[in-house]
Amino acid sequence: MLAVPFENLDIVPLQHHIQLNRKALWDKIVVRRRGGFCYELNGLFAWLLEEIGFEVTYLNGRVYNRDGQRGRNFDHLTLQVGIPNRSDRWLADVGFGDSFLEPLVFNDAIDQTQGGLRAYRLEHVEDGLDMIQRDYAGNWKRQYFFDLRPQKFPDDYEDTCLFHQTSPLSTFTHNSVISIATGDGRITLDDNHLIVTKNGLREERLVSSKEKPKLLKEYFDVIL
After folding, report:
1. Which of 78, 105, 112, 196 has the greatest number of C-beta atoms within 10 Å?
2. Active site residues
3. How much is the mean pLDDT over the chain?
4. Which domains does the chain have, with CATH numbers?
């Protein structure tokens, strides 16, 4: 979360087709030092976790929109992680942008505080669980829903991944965005706005198109 940015630059402005096979993910994120969105970041992170001995289950996430409605199936890829021969389970997610930095334990009886200002809750609902975030102002907001049925990656996510690359109904096809966590907040380049958040305090300024390559390199170590 502190090293690999969340970004959609292959969609806007590059218009490159995103591939979800492991070779393509390795080449983009590790070799070319890029970021990606949920299918890419969590897809590669799951491979890492599996290689070092964790049990990983790919889950079907559905992001809540501004009206409080869930998005389509496989709108988001998130991960259930376990340790062999133990009952402990965690929700791990490096592909949702501004969200939790440490895995969340599956226990809806507790609020899980991170960094002293943010908190998270996994709440059981009728057909799965909601991941809920408490923001800097103390307001709780449902970020996404997920169920615990195991899914197959990348097959089950390909159609919705293509939707998010091509459909005008997807938020990813309108503006470019790149964002990375820092030790005390987050840095985001959202189209022509540079947003720096430190300890809950937000500063924002307009940037020119000429500045963008320099800012991508300086803040995200990304060269297009």
Report:
1. 78
2. 38, 76, 93
3. 95
4. 17-172 (3.30.2140.20)
